[in-house]
Amino acid sequence: MLLIDTYLARRSAQGRPIQVGIVGAGTLGGAIAHQVLCHTKGMTVAAIANRHPEKAKQVLERAKVPDPSFVSSVSDLETNLRSGRPSFTDNPDLLCEADGIDVIVEVTGTIEYGSRVCLHAFEHRKPVILVNAELEATLGPILKEEAQRAGVVFSGSDGDQPGVTLNLYRFVQGLGLKPLLCGNIKGLHDTYRTPETQAEFARKWDQNVNMVTSFADGTKISFEQAVTANATGMTVAQRGMLGRDWNRHVDELTETYNADELDQLGGVVDYVVGAQPGPGVFVFGATDDPFIKKNLKLYKLGDGPLYSFYTPYHLCFLEVPNSIARVVEFQDVVTAPIDAPKVDVIAVAKKQLHAGEILDGIGGFTVYGQAEKSSLARAENLLPMGLAEKCRLIRDIPRDTALTFDDIVLPVGRLCDRLWLEQCARFHNPNIPVTPAPA
Question: Does domain 343-427 bear CATH number 3.40.50.261?
Answer without folding.
Answer: no
